[in-house]
C-alpha cells in the first residue's frame, strides 16, 4: 500500500525532528508545489504536496520568501472571464447575483492557504508565514492584498468561539512558560525566578487564550496583580521583595501587562474578550474583588510632546525642555492633555494603549508620574503610567460613546489635570 | 461591575440546563437580534446578543425558522453602491481590484454566522441551524445562496488540519457511544450489546473524526473488521455469535460501514481523509495487515435496473422480472453493468457509494450476491454488496484516471462479469 | 539484552489479551512459583515469577484454589526458632522487644501478597484472589488466618488517603458504567436506559470511590436523588416516568442505594467516608440542600419477626400470621420494635443496614410501609423501608452514643411507634 | 449540618495556602491529638483530628519533633497482657498462634501512621515526617524501632505495583522540573537552561517514578544520554556545547545519574526496578540501542585508599602520596583493586554505587581516570569514574553470583588492571 504507507511514513517523519533537512528547492520550486496543490490532485498526495511546500518554504531566505509572496499575489488570482460574467449578471439589489460575484472573485490565495492548513500542525506555521509576509510588506505595499487574505482567514479561524482560556501557573508545562518569558512585551521577565513570582505567587494570576490547533502556543496573555489599593507605580508590583497578600484579602485586580504573542495574528483582536473573561473568572474565584483596573504605559506620550503640538501651552513646552525633563506635576498635566485631546485624523485617541482600553469601555481613571522608571518607561513617557478603570455599570455606555462619537470618559481628577 | 458580572452570570446560566426557558420572541424579534449583532455593539454585549439570538432561534417552529432564513437571505446582503464602485475600478488582470470586489461583495450573512459563533459552544448549534436550513431549502430553492454561505464557512472551519481522529472503544464516554448508535446509517446497531461488539471485540475497530469545538460530537466514523479473508457477506461480520480472532492474526482490514453524523455538514467531505488516516493507524498498530478493502452497499442498483435502462440486455430484463427476483449470477452481472457503465450526465459513476470510493482511488474488486439479506439490502440491491480495494501502489493513478477521464478501475473478474 | 528484552516482552504480552493461554500447571506448580517468589531472586526475574504465578492461579478451579490456600496457610508461616528467641527476650513494658516479636512473627503470606502486587495491574487480581479465598473459607474456617492477612494488607493499601471520589455521569467511560449496572446490589438497574436516568437526569447523582491502582473498578458507590420532600417509597425515585426537577430547587438529598463493588474487599469500610464526602460535595454544588437522608431497606425484619422473638406482643404475632401479612400499621410498628430493640449479643442493632447508618451517626427518622413492593422488598420486610437522617449538628453525638453505649437515636415518631 | 459542613470547610481550608497559620500547640498537645486519633472517634471527626495533628506537627522545631517521636516510641506500644496471652497459647509449628502473636504485638505507632494517612495529601507529609525522624535518629538510636515502623509501612505503600513511570521532558509542569533541579544529587543542574538540555535535547532522556498519592513529587529519577560510544568522562555528556546526535543513530544508552528524591523513603529500593523499566522503554522506542551502561562515580575510593588498607601495594601507597595525587594509570589500578576486592564485613562490595549496580546484575566494565574533574569528583575518587554494563543475557547470573557468593563479575580489562 504505497500510498497509505506513504501517509504513515509522513506522520512518522513529521514526528522526527530531523526530517526537514530533506526539504530543498528554490522559491520557484516552492511556487510549483503551491500550484500543484491548487490543481486537481488526490487528497492524500495533496497532503504530501502541502507538507513539502511548507517544509520548503521554511528553508527560504527572507528575500526568497518575498519573491514567493509576490508570485502568489500576482498569479493566484481570479478567473477574469467568469468574474466578468458574474458582474454582467448583477443588478443592484440582487443579493444572489452579488453573492455569485463574491464567490467568483475569491482570490485563489485563500484556497491555497486553506489547503496548506490540512497538514497536521500547519496552523502555527501559517501564522509564521504571515509574520514573514508582514516583514516583506514593509518594503512592498503591493502585498497588502495577500496580507488581507491571511487576515481574513485568520479572523475566521481564530473566532472567539474557538478559543479557550487557560490559567498559567507553576503547574503549566515548561515549554509554554518559556514562551511567556519570550513574549512578554511590556515589563520584561528576567528568567525563571521572576516568572515564578508572576504565575505562582498567591496574589498573582496569568491568563492566556489558546487555539486548539496550537495547543502549546499562547495567542495573548494578561498578567494580573491582586492588591488592596489601586497601584501608582509598576515597581511595587513586579519587584521581588514586595509583600505578598492573601488573595482573599484583595479588593482590586490590576491588569498590569497584556502581550500579544503571535506577530502573524496582527489585526486579529483578542484583548477585549480576554480582559472581560478574566474579570468574570476572577469574580467567580474571589468575590471580594470590587475594582478592576489597569496599570498601563503611555507609549506615545513623549514622542508626541516633543513634536511640540499646538495642544501644549508655553508652560508645557518649557517643562519639556527642562534639563531633567518635566517635573512630576508637569508630566502628569502633559499626559492628561495627550490622553484626552491628542487624536488621530479619524478622531480616535492617538495613544494606542488608550485607544484599546477606551474602545473596550474603560475610563481614564488616574495618571501617575514616576511610575515606570525603567529605560523604556522614561524614554516613552518620562515614567508616566495610567490606570484605566473597568467599571461594570458604565462599560457599555463608555464603549458606545467612544465608538460612535470618540468621546473619552475620564475621571474628574484627570479632566481637571488636563485643563 | 454590572457588565462583567453579566458575563459571568451568562456563563453560569449557560451551564444550567434550565436557562433557555427564558428565551422567547417570534422570528421577527430574532431577526432584530441578528441585526443588532451586525451593528456596532461592544463585544461583551454583542456576546449576550448572540447568545440570546441562538437561544431564541432554537425555540422556533420549522416554519418560523424558514421565515427567518428568508429574511436573512433577502436583507443581510451587500452594500450595492460600494460594490458598484469596486466593479467600476476593476479591469481584467487587476488582481487587487478583483480582490476588492470579493471583499465588497461578501454577503453580511457570513459575518452574521461568524459573530454567532463567538458564543461558547455555538459551533454545534450553527451546524444544527444549517440542518434546519437544508430542511427549509427543499421547498425554497431561493435559500441556496444562504446555504452556500454556511457551507463555505464550514469548509473553512472544519478544515482537515483542525480535525482530530480518535479511536472509539469501550473506554469512550457513554454520551459519545450513544451518538454512534444513533448515527450509524448503514448497518443498524441494536443497542449497547451490539455496540460493545463493534467497538470492544479484539478484532473490531471504530475510528471517528472530531472537531475541537464539538468535543462530544463525532463528525464521521468508520467501522472496521479485522479478518483473515475478504468477506463476501455482511452477516459474517456483524452477527453476534461469530468467531473472534486475535487481531495479530488478521491480514485484512474491512471498512464495513461509514457514517456521516452531522446533517448540517452536508457537502463537507471527511471520508476520504478518514479512510486514509485509519489505514495509516492500522498499519502502524498491526503490521501484518496487507489488504484494505470495503464491504459496501450498492444503494442505487435496483432502482436503476427497474427503470429498464438501455444498458441492460433482454436476458437482464427477464432476470429482473422473475418472480423471485434475479438469480445470484444474474444479480451479480447486472450489478457489474451498473457499477461499470451507469453514469451521471457529467460522466461519473451513478452509484453514490461507488463514486465516493472510486474518487478516493479505490478499485472495484468483487461483487457478491446474497451479501446483505436485510430488508434494506434486498430493497436496494437484491442483497448485492461490493468490495472496493484500497491498493496502495495504484491509489493515486486510480484517482487521477477517475478524476480526469472518469475511468473506473476494476478487477478482471468484475470486468468479465459485466461483459 | 535477554533479560531486559524479557521485561519488555513481558509488558507486550501483558498488553495482549491472548497471552494468558500460555499459563498452565496445577496447584502444586503454582505453589512452587509462590515459594520461588519468596526466595532470593533478582527483581526482574522475580517480577516474571510473580506474573506467572498470578496467571496460573487464575486458571485453577475453585477446589485447586482452595488446596493452594491451605498450602499457603500451612507452609508460609514463621521461623519458629527466631520467634522463640524474640519471645525469650521480651519483658512486659519493653516496647522494642514487643516490636521485634511483631516483625519476627509476621507470616510469610503477607510478604507473598506484597511481592505478587509488584506486577502491574496486580492489585485488582489480588482482590479477586481474596474473593476466591472468602469462597473457600465458608467450608474451611482454618483459612481465617490467611484471610486476616489479606484484610490487613488491603486495609493499609485502600487507606482513605489513597482513594479518590469521582462523580459518575453520562460522560463516564462505558466500561465503568457497565460495572455500575453489574454491581448495583439494592435496586437493580435494568439496562442502559435505566442507568442513564440514574446518572444523567438533572436531579440524580452517583458518586464512587476509586483506588489509583484500579482506575476502572469502582470500590463502592452511592446513588442520590435530589427532591423537595423526604420520600416515603422507592418507586417514586426509580420509576422512569417520574417528574424531573431543577436541581437548584431541591431541598433534600436522598441516598437511596449504596453498593459495595468488590467482594474481595469485605471488611474494609468505605461507606462512612463516602457518605460524608458526598454530603460535602453536594453542599458545595447546591447550597439549597438542607436535609440529607437515606431511603433504606430493612433486610432482616421479616426473618427476625417470623422467628417469633419475645419482643413481639401477641398482637404483633397475630399480625404476622395474617393471611395477607401484617397491615401497614402493624408492619410499621413491628419494624420499629425490630429496629429499636432487636440487638446482637454484643448490643449493637441486629439489622445490618441500621447498624451501618447508626454507627455513622445517623438517626432513625421515619418508617414507611408499602415502600418497596418488589419481590425482594416484600420477602425481606413486607415492603417496609426506613429513612435514616444525617443531621449535621448531632452526628458526632449520635455516633458516640451508639459506639460507646449502643444507644440508638430515633425520632419521637419512631419511638412512639415502637411503644 | 455542622459536621459535614465542617468536612467541607475543612476541604476548603486545605485548598487555601494560608490556613495552617491556625495550627498551634506544643509537642505534648500534638501527642494528645495523636492519642485521640487512636481512640474511638467517629471517622469524620477523626479526619479533623488527623489534619490538626499533621498541621501542628509541622509547626514544631526539630527538638520538639524529637521529643514527640520519643513519646510515640515509648507510649504507642502494645497491650502487654494480650501479648502474654498470645504467647502462652503458642507452640512452635502452630501457624495460627504465631499469626495471633504477630497481630497482637503490632505497635500502635503503625495504626497511628495509617490513620494520619487518611487526610487527603497526607502521604507526602508522612514521608517528610520520617525524614524528620531520621534526623532525630542520629542522636537517639532508641528511635530505630519507630523508624522501622515507618519503613515497613512505606515499603508496603510504595510497592512497585503502585508506582508509575513517567518521562520528564520540556512539556512537564514547571513545579516537577524544579524538583528535578533540586534533587539531582550526582551532577548538579545549573538552572533552567542546563535542565532544558538534559530533558529536551533529542539525545537525552529523563525518567522518574511517581506514586499516585504524590503526583507532583518524583521518588527517584534517572538521566540517560544516547550516544554512539561508551563514554569515558562525564564532561562530554553534560557540557552545553557538545554535539547533539539524532537519537535513531544512537547505539548506546548511558545512565549517567540516578537520584533518590525523598529522604523520608530511605531503605525503600526503587532504583533496580527503574533501571530495568527504562531499558525496556528505550528498547521499545529505539530498537537500534544495543548497549546499556552507566557512567558512575566511585564515591568511597579516595577515603578508602588514604586509610592505607592492606590490599594496596607499596607502589600504590607511593602513588597516593605523590604531590599531585596518583597518575592516571595508578588511579585506575587502585580503583580496580578497591572495586574488586574491598569488602564490607558481610562480604559485599565496599563502594555503595558498586554494591547497587552489582546487586542489580550489572558487570564492572571499565574504569576511567580523569573522568570527573569537578571538585566532588577529585575529592571522592581523584576523578575516576566507572562503567557498569547491563548485559541482558548475563544479568540474572551476575545477580545470583553476587547475591549468594558475593562474586563480582568484571571485564577481563578490569580484572587485569587489579592484578
TrEMBL record, chains A, B, C, D:
Domain Malonyl-CoA decarboxylase N-terminal: 77-158
Domain Malonyl-CoA decarboxylase C-terminal positions: 161-308, 333-391
Pfam families (UniProt xref): MCD, MCD_N
GO molecular function, a single term: malonyl-CoA decarboxylase activity
A GO biological process held by the record: fatty acid biosynthetic process
Source domain of life: Bacteria
UniProt cross-references to PANTHER family, sorted A to Z: MALONYL-COA DECARBOXYLASE, MITOCHONDRIAL, PTHR28641
Protein name: Malonyl-CoA decarboxylase
Amino acid at each position: 500500500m504505497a500510498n497509505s504507507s506513504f501517509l504513515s511514513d509522513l506522520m512518522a517523519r513529521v514526528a522526527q525532528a530531523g526530517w526537514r533537512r530533506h526539504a530543498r528547492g528554490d522559491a520557484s520550486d516552492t511556487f510549483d508545489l503551491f500550484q500543484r496543490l491548487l490543481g486537481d490532485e488526490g487528497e492524500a498526495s495533496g497532503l504530501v504536496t502541502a507538507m513539502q511546500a511548507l517544509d520548503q518554504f521554511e528553508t527560504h531566505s527572507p528575500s526568497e520568501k518575498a519573491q514567493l509572496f509576490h508570485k502568489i499575489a500576482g498569479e493566484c488570482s481570479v478567473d477574469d472571464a467568469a468574474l466578468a460574467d458574474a458582474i454582467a449578471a448583477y443588478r443592484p439589489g440582487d443579493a444572489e447575483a452579488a453573492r455569485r460575484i463574491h464567490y467568483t472573485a475569491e482570490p485563489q490565495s485563500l484556497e491555497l492557504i486553506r489547503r496548506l492548513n490540512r497538514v497536521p500542525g500547519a496552523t502555527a506555521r501559517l501564522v509564521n508565514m504571515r509574520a514573514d509576509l508582514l516583514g516583506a510588506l514593509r518594503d512592498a505595499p503591493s502585498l497588502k492584498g495577500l496580507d488581507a487574505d491571511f487576515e481574513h482567514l485568520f479572523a475566521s479561524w481564530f473566532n472567539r468561539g474557538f478559543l479557550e482560556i487557560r490559567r498559567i501557573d507553576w503547574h503549566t508545562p515548561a515549554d509554554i512558560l518559556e514562551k511567556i518569558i519570550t513574549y512578554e512585551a511590556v515589563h520584561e521577565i528576567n528568567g525563571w525566578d521572576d516568572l515564578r513570582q508572576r504565575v505562582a505567587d498567591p496574589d498573582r494570576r496569568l491568563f492566556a487564550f489558546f487555539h486548539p490547533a496550537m495547543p502549546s502556543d499562547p495567542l495573548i496573555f494578561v498578567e494580573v496583580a491582586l492588591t488592596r489599593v489601586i497601584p501608582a507605580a509598576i515597581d511595587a508590583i513586579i519587584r521581588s521583595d514586595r509583600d505578598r497578600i492573601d488573595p482573599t484579602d484583595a479588593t482590586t485586580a490590576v491588569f498590569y501587562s497584556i502581550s500579544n504573542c503571535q506577530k502573524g495574528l496582527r489585526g486579529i483582536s483578542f484583548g477585549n474578550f480576554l480582559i472581560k473573561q478574566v474579570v468574570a473568572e476572577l469574580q467567580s474565584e474571589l468575590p471580594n474583588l470590587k475594582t478592576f483596573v489597569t496599570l498601563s504605559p503611555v507609549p506615545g506620550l513623549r514622542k508626541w510632546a516633543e513634536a511640540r503640538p499646538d495642544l501644549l501651552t508655553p508652560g508645557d513646552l518649557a517643562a519639556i525642555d527642562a534639563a531633567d525633563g518635566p517635573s512630576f506635576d508637569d508630566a502628569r498635566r502633559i499626559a492628561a492633555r495627550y490622553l484626552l485631546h491628542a487624536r488621530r485624523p479619524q478622531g480616535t485617541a492617538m495613544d494606542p494603549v488608550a485607544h484599546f482600553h477606551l474602545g473596550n469601555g474603560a475610563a481614564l481613571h488616574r495618571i501617575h508620574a514616576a511610575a515606570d522608571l525603567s529605560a523604556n518607561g522614561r524614554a516613552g513617557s518620562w515614567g508616566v503610567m495610567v490606570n484605566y478603570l473597568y467599571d461594570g455599570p458604565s462599560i457599555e455606555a463608555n464603549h458606545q460613546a467612544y465608538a460612535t462619537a470618540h468621546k473619552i470618559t475620564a475621571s474628574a481628577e484627570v479632566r481637571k489635570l488636563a485643563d
